[in-house]
Amino acid sequence: MSRLAGSEMPLRPFVTANFAITADGRISTRNFTPSDFSSKRDKRRLVKIRAACDAVLVGARTLGADTMTMGIPGVRGKNPPLRVIVSNSGRIAPTLRVFHTLGAQIVIFTTKKMPVKTRAALAPVADIFIHPKPAVDLSLALAILRADYGVKRLVCEGGGTLLRSFAAADLLDELHLTLCPLVFGGATAPTLTGVPGKFLPKRTQLRLVEMTRAGDECFTRWAVVRGKVPARTAK
Ligand SMILES: NC(=O)c1ccc[n+]([C@@H]2O[C@H](COP(=O)([O-])OP(=O)(O)OC[C@H]3O[C@@H](n4cnc5c(N)ncnc54)[C@H](OP(=O)(O)O)[C@@H]3O)[C@@H](O)[C@H]2O)c1
What we know:
By secondary structure, the protein is of the alpha/beta class. It has five helices and nine strands, in the order βαβαββαβαβαβββ. The chain has a nine-stranded mixed sheet. Strand 2, helix 2 and strand 3 form a beta-alpha-beta unit. The two termini are 30 Å apart. It binds NADP nicotinamide-adenine-dinucleotide phosphate. The site of NADP nicotinamide-adenine-dinucleotide phosphate (NAP) has 31 residues, from strand 1, strand 2, helix 2 and helix 5.
C-alpha cells in the first residue's frame, strides 16, 4: 500500500503490529514463557485484528514459545491470512504445531544458514525464500508478499526482536497495544523492542488513534507518524 512518491521503494503491505504489554513494559513472562497474560477479551481482539489482515507474521522464537497455529479459530467463510515466519538461522523445528495444522499457506523467509535437512523437511509444507545475505531483508520480504501473494495488510505479532527490526527499518505503520494490569520486573525481560539493549537508530513517532478501556485492560491503537511531527508532540 505504501509506495513513497518519487522513490525506488517497492510496493509493500501496510504493516500493523499487535502486542500485549504489562504496566512496566514487558511482553513476556520469566524465561520467555508464552505470552499468555492478557484476558480472553484481548485474545478475541487479537483474532479480530488477524482476521482483518492478509498475512500474519512472527519471529521464530515467538512461533516456538507460543506454540502458535497462526490461524483464525472459529471463523469461517473468509480466506484466512497467509502465515509468514522469519528466521535468520533457519533453525525452525518441523515438528512445530503450525506445520501440522491445516490453514493458510505458510511462507518462510530465511537465509542460506537454514540447515539443508530443515529445508527438505519444510519444503512440502511451506514456500521458502532464501535470502543471500546473513540476515533476511525485511523490505524485500514485504515486497515479495505484496507482489507474489497479494498481501496488502500484514500484522506482525512479535516478538520484540522482530518488531525492533521493523521499527529500525522504518517499516511499521501502526501499533495495537493492550496495556495489561500487571508488573513483571526482570532486568532482561523482553520489551516491545526485545531484550533491553541499544537505542533504535531513530525514534519511531506515534500518534494515539484509539483507546478503549475493557475491564482492567486498555486497548490502544497508534499510527506511526512520518514526516512532520504533530505540533502537540514536537519538542
Ligand atoms: N506480549 C505479546 O504480545 C507477545 C507477542 C509476541 C511474542 N511475545 C513473547 O516474546 C518472546 C519472544 O520474543 P523475542 O523477541 O525473543 O523473539 P522473536 O522476535 O519472536 O523471535 C526472534 C527470532 O526471530 C527471528 N527474527 C527476528 N527478527 C528477524 C529479522 N529481522 N530477520 C530475520 N529473522 C528475524 C530470529 O530467528 P533466528 O534466531 O532463527 O534467526 C530471531 O532470533 C516470547 O516469550 C513470546 O511469548 C509476546
